[in-house]
Amino acid sequence: AVARLPVVVIGAGIGGASAALAISRSHPVVVIDAVGLAAGASGVSAGLVNAFTGRKAARGWRGTEARRALDRLADAAGAPMRASGVLRPVGDEKQARAFRASASAWPEEALFVEAEAARERWPHIEAFHGALWIPAGGHIDVPRLVRGALDAAGRLGAETRLGVRLLGWRDDTDHVVAITDQGDVPASHLVLCPGATPLPALGAFPFGRVKGQTVTLDARLPAGAPAVAGGT
Predict the structure, then answer these.
(1) Overall average pLDDT of the 128-157 stretch
(2) String of b and e for 93-120 (b: at least 16 CB within 10 Å)?
(3) Most buried of 146, 169, 173, 230 (most Cβ within 10 A)?
(4) What would the pLDDT profile of 88-137 be if each residue is shown by its tens digit?
């Protein structure tokens, strides 16, 4: 009986949609979200695709594998990345040293551009201390990616239930039960992908917040301008 129960995925953002698509290839899946598709952090994400993150532009752990996984997800969802490259303007000289070190360590993936050359190439972007150029980067429409991934999961039999709030869960002998405001949902497994949505049931776990992305749009940017990641 347990094998026939669905895997219940909580959250219809990029995490939940990705999990639902992967799991639905081999198991029945039910996706539950209290509001709607990409209604939380995924709906406002800048969607930057950039392996060099953080104050020091350190290359992300397993960045190659992550990029390949994103490409596969985007292809399945019909939401390709806009391959504009990513430019990271430097905030100060200390950061410039860190950015140069990253570019030196990964010369095939990143290039440090000194201030004068950066002004000539990207006159609409302030890069007083230079910039790190990641040519293989870009950005992706995250809400479109979420919708496409859930549509693809749906074609494999996954079900999405919106407007259903998770209240908690309980373990039974051989399965788990998701307790929602619209009734209990028996499941073989419960996958929690709530993103930034408060989930009181997780209060007992030692989770902390992580920073996200903030975007400032300037209508004067020329066509074909790269995606820009903040220097801090």
Answers:
(1) 96
(2) eebbebbbebbeebeebbebbebeebbe
(3) 146
(4) 999 999 999 999 999 999 999 999 999 999 999 998 888 899 999 999 99
Q: Which two tokens stand for residue 216?
A: 């400032």
Cα–Cα distance measured from residue 150 to residue 19, given in angstroms and rounded to the nearest whole number? 10
DSSP 130: B
Q: Residue 148 belongs to what H/E stretch?
A: helix 142-155
Cα 128 to chain center, whole Å? 30
Residue 186 to residue 179: CA distance in whole angstroms: 9
Separation of alpha carbons 59 and 68, rounded Å: 15
Per DSSP, which regions of 11-158 are E strands? Answer: 29-33, 48-49, 52-53, 58-59, 86-89, 111-113, 131-134, 138-139
The C-alpha atoms of residue 126 and residue 114 are separated, in whole angstroms, by 12
Q: Distance (Å, rounded) from C-alpha 134 to C-alpha 112?
A: 9
Global pTM reads 0.86
Q: Is the pLDDT of residue 25 over 90?
A: yes
DSSP string, 173-218: SSSEEEEETTEEEEESEEEE--TTS--GGGTTS-------------
The Cα–Cα gap between 129 and 119 comes to: 10
Question: Alpha-carbon distance 128 to 96, whole Å?
Answer: 10
Residue 61: CB partners within 8 Å, gap ≥ 6?
Answer: none
Residues 6+ apart with CB under 8 A from 93: 129
Q: List the one residue out of 132, 16, 150, 140 whose CA is nearest residue 67.
A: 140
**How far is CA 215 from each of CA 145, 178, 228, rounded to the nearest angstrom?**
19, 36, 9
